[in-house]
Structure to design on (370 residues):
């Protein structure tokens, strides 16, 4: 059963102005604004946001990063401003296996490295053919590693972000059952293909309608594989009959939507500055305080219907191990949102730590500062 959420924007692209003038007008309207965002975690009060200390693993990551065939400036930027060890801890706080935690940290490095190649300001931002080749190589890697006849050797000449993915997927497969492995394979394909579609939308003549932007990101966003990786982290495999149950699928989709919405809120400053620094080809769907308020209301609504859906979960009357696995899986869905929010406010990928006050509020600054 799906619960309808009213659309805050009308469907279809904005087409009242010439494309370039449209973007310039929006930028002029919001340039130098400051927007106070409330504590995002307070919008999800019933969901846990525990974050254990696993910084001991940073030494292993620091030894691994020099072996990765990715531009040194990119590696240094991500290591300095985005704490993926912290994000892993927020996503998988119940994982006690350090070897698995290291693999999960490496996966998050990969997904951010890979996405940044195509996102605004990346090497492939305006290169549709290059993006298509990158997606094809990555899809081949996914099938090589997670398909029925696994092969973990990257083809000669593979780009660095594809080359680094082979051993990560090899290690993930070793800790997943066959059902979860196939689920992860399909989810990663959805993510890779979705990034390619989003790149084409960004390069269109007109700004994408924010509701359409939300729909395509919800359908194939990269956070869904991170839900499946809870099965890897905690050594269980959710049967398809449970994973495909309408309430479980509903909660997966709603937590994904909440994560997308809160990421759009918290990344607004970074994306706005990036657009100004590199081109006017993309405009963030949030452009002023009114739009921000609408998105915060959407987070509250999606959270409420997600909590209500827990009453419909397929609990077993006799199998307590299955019930424990369902609980862990659902908590993993929730941690997708709370973990992303916590991490965003405790690293400097999107804004300075000094922009967060003692109440957990964030003062976003839409000034142009490179």
């Amino acid at each position: 059963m799906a619960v309808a959420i009213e659309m805050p924007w009308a469907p279809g692209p904005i087409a009242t102005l010439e494309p370039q003038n449209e973007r310039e007008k929006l930028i002029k309207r919001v340039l130098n604004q400051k927007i106070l965002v409330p504590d995002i975690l307070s919008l999800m009060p019933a969901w846990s946001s525990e974050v254990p200390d696993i910084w001991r693993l940073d030494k292993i990551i620091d030894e691994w990063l020099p072996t990765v065939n990715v531009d040194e400036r990119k590696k240094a930027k991500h290591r300095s401003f985005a704490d993926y060890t912290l994000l892993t801890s927020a996503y998988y706080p119940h994982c006690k296996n350090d070897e698995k935690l290291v693999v999960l940290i490496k996966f998050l490095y990969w997904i951010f490295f890979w996405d940044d190649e195509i996102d605004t300001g990346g090497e492939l931002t305006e290169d549709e053919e290059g993006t298509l080749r990158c997606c094809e190589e990555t899809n081949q890697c996914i099938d090589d590693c997670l398909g029925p006849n696994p092969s973990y050797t990257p083809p000669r000449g593979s780009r660095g972000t594809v080359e680094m993915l082979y051993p990560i997927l090899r290690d993930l497969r070793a800790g997943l059952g066959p059902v979860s492995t196939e689920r992860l394979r399909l989810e990663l394909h959805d993510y890779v293909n979705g990034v390619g579609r989003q790149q084409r939308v960004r390069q269109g003549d007109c700004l994408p309608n924010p509701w359409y932007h939300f729909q395509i990101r919800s359908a194939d966003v990269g956070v869904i594989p991170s839900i499946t990786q809870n099965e890897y982290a905690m050594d269980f495999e959710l049967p398809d009959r449970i994973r495909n149950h309408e309430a479980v699928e509903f909660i997966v989709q709603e937590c994904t939507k909440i994560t997308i919405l809160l990421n759009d809120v918290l990344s607004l400053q970074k994306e706005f500055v990036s657009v100004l620094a590199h081109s006017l080809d993309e405009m963030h769907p949030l452009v002023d305080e009114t739009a921000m308020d609408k998105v915060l209301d959407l987070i509250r609504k999606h959270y409420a219907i997600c909590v209500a859906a827990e009453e419909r979960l397929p609990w077993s009357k006799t199998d307590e191990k299955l019930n424990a696995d369902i609980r862990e899986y659902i908590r993993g869905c929730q941690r997708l949102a709370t973990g992303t929010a916590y991490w965003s406010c405790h690293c400097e990928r999107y804004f300075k730590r000094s922009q967060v006050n003692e109440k957990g509020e964030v003062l976003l600054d839409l000034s142009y500062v490179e």
Residues 1-17, 279-283 have pLDDT under 50 and may be disordered. Residues 19-365 form a domain with the Farnesyl Diphosphate Synthase fold (CATH 1.10.600.10). Residues 169 and 221 are 18 Å apart (CA to CA). The chain has 16 helices and two strands.
